[in-house]
Amino acid sequence: MKKKFGAILLLSVAILSGCSSDNIHNQDSNEVSSEQQETLKDTIDAKLIGISEDKKVKLYEEANGVKLDINGNQKEFSWNYPGDTGTEPQVFYTDVTGDGKEETVMIIQTGRGTGLSHYEIHVVNTDDLNEIKVQSYEEIVANHIETHVAKKEDGTLAITVKANGNEYNFNYGWDPAPNQKPDRLGFGGVYTYYLEDQKIKLNLGAAVPGTAAYVCEFNITYKYDKAKNEFVVDQIEVIPIEI
């Protein structure tokens, strides 16, 4: 009788052990399934919109901005991404500060149209994923550029530009706003960022206010100010547009 009871007891333990093992297995399966679902959700919510040439940096579109992935390290930013404008975001992994380490640079088109071309640039420190400020074109115009427009009797315009301590004088071949009396040029229609020889550059258009008549462009080169941890204007080249 004792032997029979002992056999039954051992069988019960074995059955319980098997059930416990099955429960653990089922729990693990549920946990893996949840992780897979979360990964799938991230994949659906985040759309790849840009990647660096060496594949080390990826830029994703999300519901409230973008997500940046640098060598597996990720961070979300509330940058303006209007969707497909016809020009894909440009992503670079290169040294633009001159410290021997690569930074991540993103150039995103935010608007386009007749006489309109808007871009934004973002530079991110690879070590801490913090953004490094780039002086906006508004700051450059306010602090480094002066313009003056004068109407001439022959229907042309006399343009004077002072930029970074240099003065330029030239004529524009016709008056696109004969019923207006602008005294300075207007900015904000065209501003395009690009990289050249590991330098950040900006092409900035200047037009007669209220028109799409661009009379000159400013080619601006930035430099990195280590003390400010900021990219500031270095050189400004003024190029008249002749018609």
Q: Quick one: biggest sheet? A: 6 strands, mixed, barrel
The number of distinct helices, counting runs of at least 4 residues, comes to 2
Mean of pLDDT: 86
- Helix/strand/pairing category: alpha+beta
What is the helix/strand order? HEEEEEEEEHEEEEEEE
Physical arrangement of strands within the biggest beta sheet: 7-8-15-14-13-12
The counted number of beta strands is: 15
List low-pLDDT spans: 1-41
Radius of gyration over all CA atoms, rounded: 30 Å
Fold and architecture overview:
By secondary structure, this protein is α+β, with helices and mostly antiparallel strands. The radius of gyration is 30 Å and the shape is elongated. The strands form three sheets. A six-stranded mixed barrel has the order 7-8-15-14-13-12. The chain has three domains: 1-45; 46-134; 137-240, no CATH class. The protein contains two helices and 15 strands. A hairpin with a 5-residue loop joins strand 7 and strand 8.
